[in-house]
């Protein structure tokens, strides 16, 4: 279809991006909408952002205990608060009356959106006719001074956001059918093969924009793209003499004010894709297939400009993998500016980090998310991500000795893994935490075989038994002990990491 963007109307703004809840952070606003806003501004268009995720979380700030952590960025979030807000939301979906479809054992059906199209359509129609969730969405959006927009974008980053996103689209089209609706986000990008062939994904959606579509969306807002179609693509990247994409997101002060100032970090991204790109459980090569290099001078300039504009000097790098050489270059650029910032990044084990730790700490690095995944040599071979245990431990201890908080990512329940091996891995984590004097926090996850990952493709040897249309993870034969053990992992993630018994392999299963 061709969307006519030039008819006269009572639209009060050119465009609005909506971030549906839940999203797993209360420390930083989403990066994608801020990059869209910057692209729109370059076309002379003001793009509003309705962050319904933080608006929803803020309704529960006085009701949940805070989990203490020294981490900066996403892992500095208030985990009990975010979990409480999400569970309240899932209860409002009304999906408890529907039979889940292809539900992996132990998974939460509403969170993973393990339901058929028919079940979702029934519950969405009922919700749209009335109920607390629909009323809250309408109150949050329809009373905005910039409502209605000419173009409404909905960003879906994961399956837990699908229900609210689809409900919002239905409410908007019922009341304002002339609003052009656009669906995008990383979860939409992952589902594009299915979306292209099944119209049920495009209910109340005029245009689908997968991938990094900032320029295409900005042209749509500006009315420069009269040939916009139902499925649009991203623009080509710029040349090799500088960053191939925008380094400087555009944030609105009123939006940032919705976040607690003491925890607020600004998200930035300076590379795309994953230069390692071999982990068999990961979808990054599918969602961001093109890798780009770091331009450290421009990255430091962006961080300095954001600090000058907003008075915030804490940054969370959203790059999939910031390699040790990249971290060294960025640290050097930051130190050369003598501009005080704090930052966090995700990397993998590299012995070079033991030497770089003092430099990184001086540059303001405060948190490193370290993708250890498993300490089992057999498991490392299975996921194609190998590291010697001595190197893992030396890197953790070197970083923590400089006061850098290390988030250790661990995965449990790999094919063939035993309960004893899982408990041994938890015991190892406890020992490392003690050796690091508390400068280690953790992210603990039961393995999911997810859409778009090499594990979900032949010849992985894993038998898959179906997946729901909007879901991220497949049904597969998990080790029998994982379901109960996964509950223990969740409890440990929500518990006080500085408590004497956390994390413990002795917790009863």
Structural overview:
The chain is 38% helix and 13% strand. The protein is an alpha/beta fold. The strands form two sheets. Strands 6-7-8-9-10-11 form a six-stranded parallel beta sheet.
Quaternary status: single chain
* Rg value: 22 Å
Strand content: 5-15%
Shape: globular
The average pLDDT score comes to: 91
Main pleated sheet: 6 strands, parallel
What strand line-up does the widest sheet have?
Answer: 6-7-8-9-10-11
Low-pLDDT runs: 1-8, 232-239, 505-509
Question: What is the string of helix and strand elements?
Answer: EHEHHHHHEHEHHEHHEHHEHEHEHHEHEH
N-to-C span: 55 Å
Question: Which structural class matches the secondary elements?
Answer: alpha/beta
Helical segment count: 19
**DSSP, total strands:** 11
Helix content bin: 25-40%
Compact summary:
The protein has 509 residues and is α/β, with parallel strands linked by helices.
Main attributes of the structure:
single chain, 509 residues, alpha/beta, six-stranded parallel beta sheet, five-stranded parallel beta sheet, 19 helices, 38% helix, 13% strand, globular, disordered N terminus, disordered C terminus
Write the layout of secondary structure elements.
Blueprint: E1 13-19, H1 31-42, E2 47-51, H2 52-57, H3 79-91, H4 109-112, H5 117-129, H6 132-142, E3 149-155, H7 162-175, E4 180-184, H8 186-190, H9 192-197, E5 207-209, H10 214-222, H11 253-256, E6 266-268, H12 284-287, H13 296-310, E7 314-317, H14 324-337, E8 342-347, H15 352-363, E9 365-373, H16 377-383, H17 389-401, E10 405-412, H18 419-435, E11 440-446, H19 482-494
